[in-house]
Every structure is written in structure tokens, then in C-alpha cells.
Amino acid sequence: MTAAVHLTTTRTATKEPVMTDILTSAPRPVARSIGVSAVPLVGLEIRKSLSTRSGKAVALAAAALAPAATAMLSSSGDELDAAKGPIGALGMVTALVLFPLGVLATAGEWSHRTAQTTFLLVPNRTRVVLAKALAVAVMGAVLAALAGAASAAVLSVAPIGNPTWDGVAQALAVSVAAGAAFAVVGAGVGAALGNTPAALTSLYLTVLGAMPALRLVRPEVAERLDPANAVLQLAIGNGTTGHVLTLVGWVVVTTAAGVVLTRRRPVS
Q: Does the N-terminal or the C-terminal CB of the chain have fewer CB atoms within 10 Å?
């Protein structure tokens, strides 16, 4: 009996290390994070922005407002010396119209309570905000290009004399860049506040209200902070490096604020 027990214990003792070695040497499954890559994610955000009635309305307004205004102004019959001025000014107006495109892309997720679904599909909130920013930048640039080209086409056939077209290419390029930049600023502010009316109100009050008021009391400060003036000066050929830095600063600061506050905001 004692010998049998000893034999059983010996077999068990010899098998356990063997099984342990097999388990430790066996290949372990590697967990891989599955997520949407950058390009499809940006494409998805573009489709989301243009799938709503509000997004379609903003896109239509951004593309059509400038050429419509050009047609109205040129119907007065007054002669025009240079075409770059109206194209630059209307490019700035188009950029202002593109604020809501960015706001709706980010703050709309919270206003319509779709943020939970979005962050379940892509848990990395930084990726989501940056994808939205890139998506609205592409849409803003395309819409601004369409508006600028249509405005130039209207001016080319309007009874406005024989204006010079020097500097028009630069005005159009600045308009396209401004459309992208203002759409991204809207996305950043919308992501930071998480509320569509609050984001739109704060943006337009700041750019169209606070900046002109600041220009009356501290023009040197307003010159460094006003994004609308920076776009206009760059479009008509009077821009400086400071105006470029003004636009870059607005894009960087608002996007960073949007990323940080979106990461900290609870999803209910």
C-alpha cells in the first residue's frame, strides 16, 4: 500500500512540472486593438456632416452666398478698379459662414446625444476630434473654392468696367485657406463647449462684436487677434507674417481646447 501511494505521488510530481512547462511555452493570444483607420474615419465624418439638413443648409449657404452677393453688387453698374478686393472680402464672408459647419460636426454630437455611439465605435476621443477637424477643413476648403470660383465667374461677365485681375489668384488661395481654418475653429469651439447655440453665439460675438470693439480702444491688440481682418489683409495683398500667425493661433488654440475638454467630458 505504501509503495502504491509513493508511486502515485511520484507520477503526479513528475507530471505537474511537465504540464506547467507546456502551458508556459505555449504561444499566448495577442490582443489587438481594432479601430477605424484615419482616412475612412475622416470620410465618415464628412458623410455625417452632410447627411443632416443643417449641415446641407450650411454647405449650400457657404457655396452660394458669395456669388449671390457678387451678382447683387455688380448689378449697380459701378465700375471696379480691381477684382481682388471684392473676392477677398467675400472670401472672408464665406469663411464666417463656415463656422457653423465645424460647430455642428462636434457640438452637434452632444446636442443630439450621439456622442455615446460615436465614442463606443472609436473610444479614442482625440482621434475623433482630430478626424472631425480634418473633415471640416476639407469641406471648408472645397466650399470656399467653389464660392470663390463662382464669384470670379460672376465678376468676369458683370458690367463693372475693365478691372485688373492682378492678385486674384492670391485672394482665391487665401479664401480657400480661410474656409478651412474657420471651419476648424468652429469644430474646436464646438468640441470645447459641447453646446451648439453656445458655441455659435460665442464665436460670432467674439469675431463680429468683441474684435471691432477692441479695435476702437486697442487697435494694436486687435490687429494681432482679429481673424477676419487677418483674412482680409492677406487676401488683398497687405498681409504679414503676423496675420498668418493669427489664423494659425486660432486653429491651434481652439483645436487643443476642444481635444482637452472633450477627453474630460463625461458621456451620459
A: N
